[in-house]
From TrEMBL:
PROSITE patterns: HTH_MERR_2 (PS50937)
Organism: Faecalicatena fissicatena
InterPro entries per UniProt: DNA-bd_dom_put_sf, MerR-type_HTH_dom, MerR_fam
Listed Gene3D superfamilies: 1.10.1660.10
Name this polypeptide is given: MerR family transcriptional regulator
Amino acid sequence: MSNIKEAEEQTGISRANIRYYEKMGLLQPKRNEKNGYREYRPEDIKRILQIKILRKLDVPIEEIKDTFDRPEMLGKVIQKQKERLEKQRAELTDAIDFCEEIKEENLGEFDPQYYLKKMDEKEKKGAVFADLLNDFKKVSKAEAEARFSFRPDTMCMNPEEFEEALLQYASEKGMKIVITKKGMYPEFTLDGIPYTAYRHFSRFGAMIECETTNAKTAGHEMSPKRYHMFKWLHRMELPTFLLILILVLFVRSVEGFVLAMIFYAICGIVACSRYFDYTRNF
C-alpha cells in the first residue's frame, strides 16, 4: 500500500490531480480505517499511470472514464482521439502551406480580398483553415468557466452566509449547484463543473472568487499550444484581438492605421471602465 505522497512520487502526478481523478470517479482508493487516509494499491498506481498516458494524448476525462467503465472501449477511444489529432494536423499543415503563398513583406501591399478568395478556393477543394473568431470564443467561454467572481449581498462572515451567497448566485444565473464541501473555502459543482471558492475584501465590500478544480474546462477541443495562444489573446481582451485582425486583414494605409488605433483606444477605455466596476484586487 502507498499513501498519496508515495503515489505522487511513483507516478509523477501531483496530489491535487490524483484527488481530482478520484473526485471524477477514475480512482477509488481504499481508506485506512484508523486514520481515514487514502491507501493506493498497485492496481491504483497502474490506473494513475494509464490516466497519465491518456491525458498526455489529450483524451478527454469523460472518455477516459468510459474506458475504465468499459475496458473494451479503449481501441475506439484511441481511434477517436487519433482522428481528432489528425484533423488538427491537417489544419496546421494547410495553414503552414498557405503562409508560404504570402509573398508580401509590407502590410500596405497585402491584399486581403485576393488571399481570402484563394482561401475559399482551397477550402472548396478540402483544405481546412481554422476559424479564428470561433476558436477565440471557445477559449473565452472556457476561461470564463475556469474562474469568475461576484459580489454577494452579505459579508459572508460564516459558512452559512457563504453557502447562501453561492446558492443565490446559481439561482440568479439559472445554474445547477451542488455544495460538496462547506466552510470558508467551500467546494461545489456548477452545472457539473467542480469549483473551490474563497472570500476577500475590496473597497466595495466582500468579493467571492471561484476557480475550477478541473484540469481542463469543458468547451474546447484543440491542441494545448493552440488553446494557450488564444488564452493569451483572451487575456489581452477582445479589443486587442480585433485590432490584430483589423491590422492584418484591412489596414492598408496610414489613415486606416490611425482609425484602428482610435478604435482600440476607445475599446480600451471601455475595458478599463468595466475592470474598475468589477475590480478584483484592491
